[in-house]
Design a protein that fits this description.
By secondary structure, the protein is α/β, with parallel strands linked by helices. 34% of the residues lie in helices and 20% in strands. Helix 2 links the parallel strand 4 and strand 5. The longest helix is centred in the N-terminal third of the chain and has 16 residues. It is globular, with a radius of gyration of 21 Å.
Length: 392
């Protein structure tokens, strides 16, 4: 299965510290990749230390593109890592390295992780795909998991979440709350995943308000709060009164809060960052997959060369903390969409769907398959402007 997406993953007394120095992308100076001791309770570690030699814990490492404190993407992954510790206790030891760049240096980080004895390694952003693929080819005794990628190997597989489902449900709320009929999205990097989320947000809004149009400002980074803030302000200056982002921080929500506008949390529940502006949060729960992968690694059933794409149905995507400001009838529409996504009776990408250029991209009653969804490189009708890099 191909998922053209993005992303775009120490604890232990007596465990050698993972270290990596990384050249920051687009920056003329060097910055050190932060090495963080994963917070954990002492009990599991003591149990692991006391375990007999034939029951050594499985060592698992995560490479994070951001920091756990971002409140969004990396925060969601780190919550799932903690869920692993709770689920398996002394059977595993987890660690992470934060701020690993989406560049060639990620390869060295993966090799360092394997050198420290980690036998299951998660890379949590799209840009790690090629470096991880290269390392996997050399280290056949290590299991590699790549988030949001589409290339696999005998000891490397991919996993992703259907974030567009959360975007659609957020769109329903946006369509019901906008007063200007203009909503806005702060886009990170113009890859199919992000474009698909923008389109799904728009389709959701149009399902309750056909007059809605969507403005987009791209920041070309996953995590840059100052740029995200500037982009959000630009959207509001352009008339958008409800904002969503496909970036990793809470900056968009905080900016909307200060301006008296509305916005959504993304990847994690961001209510606390802007309680007055917050309409709901489209969240990802990585724990079900991380638990599945770890259990397979422990019991010997783990196999590479495959990929999964989970959504509402599998408990990986949800819309949470819907504000009391949202009318009951809009909440009901959201719940209906969620129920339909869960039982398969509702499909977001079903024709007729028209592109922003007026051409039909999905015929009447046609349902987009994952290959189609994985290759979305166009805006749907209602999204203003052109996709960056589109020469049309």
């Amino acid at each position: 299965m191909s998922f053209h997406s993005k992303r775009s993953l120490i604890k232990a007394a007596g465990w050698t510290t993972l270290a990596a120095a990384a050249a920051l992308v687009g920056c003329g100076k060097k910055d050190e990749v932060a090495v963080v001791a994963a917070p954990a309770s002492a009990a599991p570690m003591a149990a692991a230390s006391a375990a007999p030699p034939n029951a050594a814990p499985l060592k698992i490492a995560f490479a994070y593109v951001g920091v756990p404190g971002d409140g969004g993407w990396t925060f969601a992954h780190d919550n799932a890592r903690k869920a692993l510790e709770k689920e398996f206790g002394a059977k595993i030891v987890t660690s992470f390295v934060e701020k690993v760049p989406e560049a060639a240096d990620a390869e060295r980080v993966f090799r360092d992780m394997a050198g420290q004895g980690n036998k299951l390694i998660f890379g949590t952003t799209f840009g790690y795909m090629e470096p991880m693929l290269k390392v996997a080819a050399d280290l056949k005794d290590v299991k590699f998991e790549h988030a949001t990628g589409y290339k696999q190997a005998e000891n490397m597989r991919t996993y992703d979440s259907r974030t567009y489902e959360g975007a659609y449900m957020a769109g329903i709320i946006a369509g019901g709350m906008t007063k200007t009929n203009t909503i806005g999205v702060v886009g990170s990097i113009p890859i199919p995943e992000v474009i698909r989320n923008i389109n799904s947000f728009t389709l959701g809004a149009q399902s309750v308000n056909p007059k809605v149009k969507t403005k987009v400002v791209w920041v070309n980074e996953w995590y840059n709060p100052p740029k995200e803030t500037e982009a959000a302000q630009s959207l509001m200056n352009g008339g958008a009164d409800v904002l969503m982002q496909n970036t990793d921080s809470s900056a968009v929500l905080q900016t909307a809060e200060k301006a008296g506008k509305y916005a959504f949390g993304w990847d994690s529940d961001m209510t606390a960052y802007g309680p007055k502006a917050h309409l709901a949060s489209a969240v990802i729960n990585w724990a079900p997959y991380y638990i599945k992968a770890t259990r397979e690694a422990l019991d010997g059933s783990w196999k590479g060369g495959s990929g999964i794409w989970w959504g509402v149905k599998e408990g990986a995507i949800d819309i949470v903390s819907i504000s009391d400001k949202v009318p009951a009838e809009i909440k009901a529409k959201v719940e209906a969409a969620k129920a339909g996504l869960k039982d398969g009776s509702f499909v977001i990408w079903k024709g007729p769907i028209t592109g922003s250029d007026g051409k039909e991209v999905l015929a009447k009653d046609a349902v987009a398959d994952d290959k189609f969804l994985g290759g979305v490189k166009f805006y749907v009708k209602g999204v203003e402007g052109k996709v960056p890099g589109d020469g049309k």
